[in-house]
Each structure stands twice: as structure tokens, then as C-alpha cells.
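One chain given next:
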Amino acid sequence: MKNQTLKIIAYCLSILAWVMLVIGVGFTIIIGMAAATAVARVAFVLGGLVMTAIIGASLLACSKLISLLINIGDNLGEIKDIIKEKK
């Protein structure tokens, strides 16, 4: 219960990552179709997809990192309690 806010932030970051991926791919396709030449289309589509992937992966990584740190904290608390019981 003590890390509820961090869990909510991690969950919101993962949702934001997927929304950004969907919107990014959609806008990339739309902008790619509107380009004047074939070279520009390919450049816009590839650049847009790469940037979308980088942003999405970064947001997902932040979400997973927060979840990992929460789990580490919980496990360390359990280890501390076990050590206290054995003393």
C-alpha cells in the first residue's frame, strides 16, 4: 500500500507508451503519404517509425524500471523481516 502512487505512475506510463506508439505509427503513415516524392515518403516513414519506437521503448522502460524498483524494495523488506525473526 505504501507504493501505490508509484504503481499508478508505472501503469500510466505503460498506457502512455502504447498510446504514443499507436498515434506515432498513425501520424507517420499519414505524413508519409503526404510527402511529395518517393524518397521523401520512405525517409518520413522510416524516420517516424524509428522515433516512435525509441519514444515508446523509453516510456515502457521507465515503467518497467519503476516496477522493478518497487519489487526490489518489497523483497528487501521481506528479507529484513526474516533476518529480524532469526535473531
Notes: The chain is about 90% helix and 0% strand.
